[in-house]
Design goal:
This protein is mainly beta. It has three helices and 17 strands. α1 crosses α3. The chain is rod-shaped.
Length: 320
C-alpha cells in the first residue's frame, strides 16, 4: 500500500509538468489585439499565474500594461479557451511585427493537496515534500514541457498584411457649405488628436443709409480661414470597422475688402464635433461647426449672420 501511494505522489508532478500552453492564436479586434490559448491538461481544481510578454520587430521583450481577460494571478484551469485582450495603442504608437509569449505557472492544485495529505498519513517523511510549481511558456505548437527547455518560447506573429494593425493616422478632406476648402489630419487611437484647416469665400452687400435715405450699396468680398484643434475618442471597435467621436475648437480669421480697397477684418471662435467611421484604409466623417463672438472687428457693420449658423462638416480620406 505504501508503494502505491508513493508511486502516485511521484507521478503527480510528472503529469502536471506535461501541461502546456497550446493553440495560441493572435488576431486584431478593432484597436485591440486578441490572444487566445489553452492550458493543456489543466483541471478546474488548479490555479495558475499567467503572464504575457511581447517583442516588437525583434526588439527587447516587454510586458504590455493595458491587458485584460485571462491573465494575471489565480487563473482557474479547465477552460476550453482562454482570452487576453490588449489595448495596444494605449501602450505603443504603432504595431508592426509582434511576437507574443504566454507563460503559465501552476500555483495550486486542490486534488494534489488532498492526495498528499492522505499519503502523508502513511509516510510523512517520504511523501510530504513541497511540490514545485510548473513553469511553462509555450505557443501554438503544443509539446510536453518535459521535452523542452524550462523557458523555451515559440511565438505567434502578426506580421502578415491582414493582421497588421498600424493604420492609426489619417489625412483627408474636411469641409462644408460655409467652408468648402479644407484638410484634416490626426490620429485615431483610443484617445487621439487632430488638426483641421478650412477656408471659404463669399460676397456680402452692405446697404448704406443716411438719415433714413438709401444712399447706395457696397459689395464686400470675404475670405476666411479657420484652423482648429481637437481630440478623438474610440467608441466602437469591431474587427476592421471602427467609430470615433471628435470635438474641437477653432479660430476664424475673416478678411473683408471692397472694390475701392476698403478693408476690414473679423475674428470668431468656433466649436465643432462629430463622428468618424473607419473601415480598413478609408474613413468618412460628419459633424457640425458653429461660430460665435459675433461682430468682433474694427468695423462691425457687415451682416455676417450666415457665418453664425451651424454648418455641416463632411470629410473623407485615407488611413496610414
Amino acid at each position: 500500500m505504501k508503494r502505491l501511494l508513493l508511486l502516485l505522489s511521484i507521478l503527480a508532478p510528472l503529469a502536471l509538468s506535461a501541461q502546456t500552453v497550446e493553440n495560441i492564436r493572435v488576431e486584431p479586434d478593432g484597436e485591440y489585439i486578441k490572444i487566445t490559448y489553452r492550458i493543456g491538461g489543466s483541471t478546474e481544481s488548479q490555479l495558475y499565474n499567467v503572464s504575457l510578454d511581447c517583442s516588437m520587430d525583434g526588439l527587447q521583450r516587454f510586458a504590455p500594461q493595458t491587458i485584460e481577460g485571462d491573465v494575471g494571478q489565480n487563473i482557474r484551469g479547465g477552460k476550453s479557451i482562454y482570452t487576453i485582450l490588449w489595448d495596444v495603442f494605449e501602450d505603443v504608437e504603432e504595431v508592426g511585427e509582434v511576437e507574443f509569449f504566454v507563460k503559465v505557472d501552476l500555483v495550486s492544485d486542490d486534488k494534489v493537496s488532498a492526495r498528499r495529505t492522505f499519503a502523508g498519513e502513511v509516510d510523512s517523511t517520504t511523501l510530504n515534500q513541497p511540490e514545485k510549481p510548473v513553469e511553462n511558456q509555450e505557443s501554438t505548437q503544443a509539446q510536453p514541457a518535459s521535452q523542452q527547455p524550462a523557458k523555451a518560447a515559440v511565438s505567434e506573429s502578426v506580421s502578415s498584411s491582414d493582421r497588421k494593425i498600424s493604420k492609426v493616422s489619417y489625412i483627408g478632406y474636411s469641409g462644408g457649405p460655409i467652408s468648402p476648402i479644407g484638410v484634416s489630419f490626426g490620429s485615431l487611437k483610443n484617445i487621439g488628436s487632430y488638426l483641421s484647416f478650412r477656408a471659404g469665400t463669399t460676397e456680402v452687400v452692405y446697404h448704406y443709409y443716411e438719415s433714413g435715405v438709401y444712399v447706395g450699396s457696397y459689395p464686400w468680398d470675404l475670405v476666411w480661414f479657420t484652423p482648429s484643434i481637437g481630440l478623438t475618442k474610440s467608441l466602437v471597435a469591431l474587427n476592421e470597422f471602427r467609430v470615433h467621436a471628435y470635438a474641437g475648437v477653432g479660430y476664424s480669421f475673416i478678411f473683408a475688402k471692397t472694390e475701392s480697397d476698403d478693408t476690414a477684418n473679423y475674428k470668431y471662435v468656433s466649436i465643432e464635433g462629430g463622428l468618424i467611421a473607419v473601415y480598413k484604409a478609408f474613413y468618412l466623417s460628419g459633424g457640425v461647426e458653429y461660430r460665435y463672438n459675433k461682430d468682433i472687428g474694427n468695423i462691425p457693420i457687415l451682416n455676417l449672420s450666415n457665418l453664425h449658423k451651424p454648418a455641416f462638416i463632411l470629410g473623407a480620406g485615407l488611413m496610414f
